[in-house]
Write a structure and sequence with these properties.
The chain has 325 residues and is mainly α. It contains 14 helices and no strands.
Length: 325
């Protein structure tokens, strides 16, 4: 029997022609398609730089920084569909800054290729800037209906089983021990090594707590939710979702560009520093030998802190400015 889909199947028809080709040919064609999608995401993330005076050379370097980010390169090498996730999340982040809320939410629906990630990014917008959530809901419903038409209810139920198994390790080779996030950390220190019920509860409750924390924050911010806040939400999502492999940590390339755009729009001369920090994190991961087979240690934590630091600094500056006003 055929295995159930482990991702929502709305890409099936687009990928069907590749299934008729030899594996190597199909891989190279998909590599080109994924690179194109990543390039579109990088272009969208850097348009704000060009609009505020960055040179063509500087913009090109920043796009290259995105494409050379460790997890982006890993996703390309492995032939993953992370590019679709990246395109949806990058468009969402950029349009949030432009206050095009409904379109931002609609683009975020592409991130439903990883439903748990998309939901974590979307649910806080129930409590602030609700047109974002409305756009996400509209786009996701359309993709869900299309997917249902492709696989039927039996396929949907099989997919739910896959999600349940992947969240706790289960009997599927989902590699919980290799996940570079909180769930993987719990598993590696021995909590839930056999997929116990307590481990499942801890995984899901941590995810729910993450969503609740950001939702409460969004409710207090209301219309002040900015790309910097969304960058922090992305980093929290990468760390706390119940299932994440290192190639999907490509999302960590989005917050530094968002901070760079905010800084250059405020005529700050240090606008490139967040991207330099991202490159440092990427080089650090590469030099440290992080791969999908390595265990969690201080290396990934240092890399995430390098990306997080500029966001926290700018968030503190925004808070100080509001207090002075």
């Amino acid at each position: 029997p055929l295995l159930a889909f482990n991702h929502p199947p709305f890409l099936v028809e687009a990928l069907r022609p590749l299934s008729r080709l030899p594996y190597e040919t199909a891989y190279w064609i998909w590599l080109g398609c994924a690179l194109l999608l990543f390039s579109i995401a990088a272009h969208a993330m850097t348009t704000g730089l060009a609009a505020h005076g960055a040179s063509t050379f500087q913009v090109s370097l920043n796009r290259l920084a995105v494409l050379s980010f460790f997890s982006v390169a890993l996703a390309l090498a492995q032939g993953q569909d992370t590019a679709v996730l990246m395109l949806g999340a990058a468009g969402w982040s950029v349009l949030i800054g432009q206050r095009r809320d409904f379109t931002a939410g609609a683009l975020l629906s592409l991130a439903a290729i990883r439903p748990h990630i998309a939901l974590t990014l979307a649910i806080p917008f129930v409590f602030a800037r609700r047109r974002v959530f409305a756009g996400f809901l509209a786009g996701t419903v359309l993709l869900a209906l299309y997917s249902l038409n492709l696989v039927g209810w039996q396929g949907v139920l099989a997919y739910v089983d896959v999600i349940r198994e992947s969240a706790v390790g289960g009997q599927l080779p989902m590699g919980t021990l290799r996940m570079p996030n909180f769930l993987g950390l719990l598993h590696r220190v021995g909590y839930g090594s056999g997929g116990e019920r307590a481990f499942a509860i801890a995984a899901w409750m941590t995810w729910v707590a993450c969503i609740a924390m950001f939702s409460l924050w969004w409710a207090s911010l209301q219309s002040r939710v900015s790309p910097i806040h969304c960058g922090l939400l992305l980093i929290g999502t990468v760390f706390f979702v119940p299932h994440l492999h290192l190639h999907d940590a490509a999302l960590l390339a989005i917050p530094p560009l968002a901070v760079a755009v905010v800084r250059i729009s405020g005529s700050r001369s240090d606008w490139e520093r967040p991207v330099i920090a991202m490159l440092a994190a990427s080089l650090f991961l590469s030099a440290a030998g992080i791969s999908t087979r390595s265990s969690f240690d201080v290396k990934l934590a240092v890399a995430m802190l390098l990306i997080l630091a500029p966001l926290l600094n700018d968030l503190r500056s925004q808070h100080s400015i509001r207090q002075d006003a």
